[in-house]
Design goal:
The protein has about 400 residues and is of the alpha/beta class. It has 2 domains: about 150 residues, Aspartate Aminotransferase, domain 1, CATH 3.90.1150.10; about 240 residues, Type I PLP-dependent aspartate aminotransferase-like (Major domain) (Aspartate Aminotransferase, domain 2, 3-Layer(aba) Sandwich). The chain contains 13 helices and 13 strands.
Length: about 400
């Protein structure tokens, strides 16, 4: 297959950042050890640069102890490490008021969202309040809020759940419908920063304008932290929840950042238990690595690769690309996909297509992607990119897809 000519801007980005990208790709041992394979599943979990692996090894071989449980040097260093990691998360998020905000470490986004839903949200809500739930996003950002509704109902507190309205043509939130006066003002809104299937920025600033200054907004940032700059100084949200393993840290690590400006103070309930100290150590190093690499450049690189992929796919009639249809061309002026491209073959089941692609060396995700009940009901193949991916991998993928008719 001859790949269609890529837009000038995309080609410019790939040429401009090529040397920078090659230097970063070389820092991923699992990637360089398997040059015959293309890892295209970073939305599920990100690969780890050598610096993160070294940090985990150094912690386990020099400092390993429990945090907040002992007074000997290893324990003291670990306690200090956890506290410094909280500060590191705040700096990475461009926190404008770190002295007031809070960071709570979790096992990942799912636990973080459930912590907000079950430990904090009931203290905010009263009988008759309304919350907004993004029913076409990831299940992890749907189920906890419905669980809270059921728990409160058993206590005689009845809250209304309004499904987040969507623009079907693009997969974006419909902020106009959300803000209609007849709908009233919700007390709490759960939202997603970057959609895990459609790959679009969900324009949270529009959500804030639609729901007004008093509503609490909880942001699922699983697909944005580590992939693009995220500034809570610019995003007027109250919670940012993310997974460390999608941001190049070890699995079993995540965080909840709380602004502490609307509603009661965020304090997770119950006994906290032992934190994942090695995971937290890896998260600090991962954030250092990402900041040094430049999340702005990572975003430019992955957006360019995604545009190269959609540009090629739109010329293959046997494929359907999910999400906004006006942003497929590489020279589109419409917001492009942030490193996530999801598609279907009209005749080949997505699971079968995933197996076929792996036989050619491509590791993709092929299923329903944990999307909620209002989302896609037919399986699809998701390609999700990061800084170690190359334009050559995209071209090889397009060549294989073209042979499948």
């Amino acid at each position: 297959m001859t790949v269609p000519r890529t837009g000038t801007q995309v080609t410019h980005v790939i040429d401009e950042l090529g040397e920078w990208q090659r230097a970063l790709r070389a820092q991923f041992p699992i990637i360089t050890a398997h040059p015959e394979l293309a890892y295209l599943d970073s939305a599920a979990t990100a690969q780890k640069p050598q610096a993160v692996l070294d940090a985990a090894h150094a912690y386990l071989t020099t400092t390993n102890a429990n945090a907040g449980r002992g007074t000997y040097p290893w324990a003291n260093r670990t306690t200090s490490l956890v506290e410094q990691a909280r500060d590191r998360v705040k700096r990475f998020l461009d926190d404008p008021a770190p002295e007031r905000s809070a960071v709570h470490f979790t096992s990942g986004t799912t636990e973080g969202l459930r912590t907000v839903a079950l430990d904090w949200l009931p203290r905010l809500l009263a009988d008759g309040d309304e919350i907004v739930v993004p029913v076409a996003d990831h299940e992890a950002n749907i189920a906890p809020w419905l669980e809270t509704q059921r728990d409160l109902a058993r206590q005689g507190v009845h809250i209304r759940v309004r499904p987040m309205p969507y623009q079907r043509s693009s997969g974006d939130y419909d902020h106009i419908a959300l803000g209609e006066p007849a709908s009233g003002r919700p007390r709490f809104v759960a939202a997603t920063h970057v959609h895990h299937v459609y790959g679009g920025d969900m324009n949270i600033h529009r959500i804030r304008r639609a729901v007004g200054p008093d509503a609490v907004i909880c942001l699922d940032a699983a697909q944005s932290i580590g992939h693009l700059p995220v500034s809570v100084a610019e995003l007027d949200v109250d919670f940012v929840v993310f997974s460390g393993h999608k941001a190049m840290a070890l699995p079993g690590t995540g965080a909840v950042w709380a602004r502490q400006a609307r509603g009661p103070e965020f304090t997770p309930g119950g006994w906290s238990g032992s934190p994942n100290t090695v995971g937290i150590a890896s998260l600090t190093t991962a954030l250092d690595w990402l900041e040094a690499a430049g999340t702005d450049r990572i975003e430019r690189w992955t957006v360019a690769l995604a545009a190269r992929l959609t540009e090629g796919l739109r010329h293959l009639e046997t494929y359907e690309i999910l999400g906004c249809q006006t942003s497929l061309a590489a020279d589109s002026s419409v917001q492009r996909r942030l490193g996530i491209v999801t598609f279907r073959h009209h005749a080949i089941d997505s699971s079968d297509l995933g197996f076929i692609l792996f036989s050619h060396g491509f590791m993709v995700r092929s299923d329903h992607h944990c999307q909620g009940s209002a989302g896609e009901r037919t399986g699809s193949v998701r390609v999700s990119l990061h800084v170690h991916n190359t334009a050559e991998e995209i071209d090889r993928l397009l060549a294989v897809l073209a042979t499948l008719g």
